[in-house]
Amino acid sequence: MPHANDWATPSSTGLVLEQLPIAEVADGYEIIPDVRVVDMCGHSIGSIGVLIETEHGRAAITGDALHFAYVAQTKRYPLMFWDEDKANQSIERILDLADVIYPGQDRPFRLTSANEIEYTREHRLTVTGMNPECRRSLSTETRNGPSG
Hints:
By secondary structure, this protein is of the alpha+beta class. It contains four helices and seven strands. The strands form two sheets. The protein has a five-stranded mixed beta sheet with strand order 1-2-3-4-5, covered by helices on one side. A two-stranded antiparallel sheet has the order 6-7.
């Protein structure tokens, strides 16, 4: 079960995890060939990323240890739960290791030699499950502003 003060973790997390095989891993652990764990502690205790060797270079999946491209650009983590120095060291390390970063809450990106953010794909937003009446209502509000 999550801690009583943990507002971000669903209460069912413990039940789900109890049903899965779980192994403790450390920095460098190879999950499968060309996929390994990288320690990214700092934002929170035990934060990890995953490094993947691809035909296009090394990609990193960072989760919330590096959640937005601007965190990489500024090399400063704005929301700290554990150790600011370690978080900033983790950011520097992942930038040294990865060619492309898949952050927890942003699009995949890389930093240019001029320290500019270069997204690897265009931003697209797809909304599904809307019926035609809802779509018509949203279209009208967009043109005329919200009614009421």
